[in-house]
């Protein structure tokens, strides 16, 4: 009896995208405005935030679909700060709760990054340099740089659809 072997390498090819890390202290809507202005794009906040771990951490996300280039641009926050109440460990007559700020990261390998700009369809290096140079023109942005997606351990967190 003949044995048939199926090779599925081409079918399960990973999605190609460019990932830019952005360091700044701006609010998400201000950064989206600056990127729209300096890159000539139109990022709009999505109605629902990214929700991970059943509401324990949510991340703001902005999106723009470039119909000419058939590319989707996403700006997503890397930091989620949530206030949690827990019982204090002090022995006292009164029950007391203390407020703790818990921080979660979308991509834990890059805890110092505030935002990620994800561009579907891998961008050529000349276009990538142009994008980075225009991002760095904004005076409120401390720095921005490209990230090698193949080195990320938590790249599954960057699947938005």
TrEMBL record:
It comes from the Bacteria. This is IPExxxVDY family protein. It comes from Flavivirga eckloniae. The lineage of its organism: Bacteria, Pseudomonadati, Bacteroidota, Flavobacteriia, Flavobacteriales.
């Amino acid at each position: 009896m003949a044995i048939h072997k199926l090779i599925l390498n081409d079918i399960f090819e990973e999605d190609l995208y460019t990932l830019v890390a952005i360091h700044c202290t701006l609010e998400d809507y201000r950064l989206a405005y600056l990127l729209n202005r300096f890159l000539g794009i139109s990022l709009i906040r999505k109605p629902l935030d990214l929700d991970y771990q059943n509401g324990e951490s949510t991340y703001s996300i902005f999106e723009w679909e470039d119909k000419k280039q058939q590319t989707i641009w996403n700006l997503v926050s890397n930091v989620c700060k949530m206030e949690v109440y827990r019982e204090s460990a002090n022995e006292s007559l009164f029950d007391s709760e203390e407020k703790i700020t818990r921080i979660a990261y979308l991509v834990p390998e890059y805890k110092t990054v505030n935002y990620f700009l994800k561009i579907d369809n891998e961008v050529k290096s000349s276009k990538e340099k142009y994008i980075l140079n225009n991002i760095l023109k904004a005076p409120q942005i401390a720095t921005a740089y490209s990230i090698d997606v193949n080195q990320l351990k938590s790249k599954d967190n960057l699947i938005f659809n």
